[in-house]
Amino acid sequence: MSASCQIGFDVGGTSLKAALVAEGQILETVSAETPVEQSQAEAVAVMADLIEQLKKAAAQRDLHVTGVGMGIAGLVDYTRGYVITAPNLPNWKDFSLAEQLSAKVGLGVKLDNDVRAMAMGELAYGAGRGARHMLCLTVGTGVGSAIIINGEIYRGASLTAGEFGHVMVIAEGGRSCGCGNRGCLETVAGTEAILSLGRRYLERGLAPVLAEKLTQNGGQLTPKLIAEAALAGDMGCVSLWNEIGHWLGIALAGAVNFINPEQIVIGGGIAQAGALLFDPIQRVIQFHAFERPAQAVKLMPAALGAEAGMIGAAALAQQA
Ligand SMILES: [Zn+2]
Q: Ligand 1 centre from 125 Cα, in Å?
């Protein structure tokens, strides 16, 4: 009997990536443009085609594919394998994706949202290995999270648990958020907030190293560039990461009191800022959370990087 492996999909707004995964190791990857404009049936066909390619690759390695898992940026009904809504994929509204795809490829298909898939990957094979109680945060354009309690994903009564980016951190006068509220964590710690803060430092002449790097980079401001400038000694950029860390720390201190996690794993583009970001978060947690849970929690960067989504989706495929 041949050894088993799974297929993990990372469904983003622009690209559809899928990998053949065995024991948390990626053996082969394939990708396609995300079928944004196409009908649901056409989208299923695109995914089925990627699965067939990976099944062939598995056969060549004498491996047997036991299932398919998918992480999707959107509201997903895990129990029914159903996409309720996906903001970047309007045609995927009310999409019985698992059922349709499973009928086409003859494999079981499991779906969950992208952050939970990433958390599954980190929990099984990455920074969260062995953790029982963990909070997994991704900071990008949006700020998302997944909550692990007793080694399992906590999804909530109507599957929306983990909307950490919309925890309110500024009670009055906060910037308006995409969700319709004001003062959400996302408005002060997401990529847009980081870039607008960077621009402000530049305009006031407070980030000279960043200004130099920006010219070399063709004027393209990114969180990565701001992290590099801070590492090269730009005090403006160091203070920028302190501010971002402050806001994340405020929200996380609440989560530490509330959930008492052993680990907080932070992923997404800004994890590259490393200690510049993690130190202020740690300080704010130590300062604001109760002593006992604050001492119990370890803050760590995600270990699986951009592959966490596919590895985690493959781990999802193994769930009963
Ligand atoms: Zn919001």
A: 31
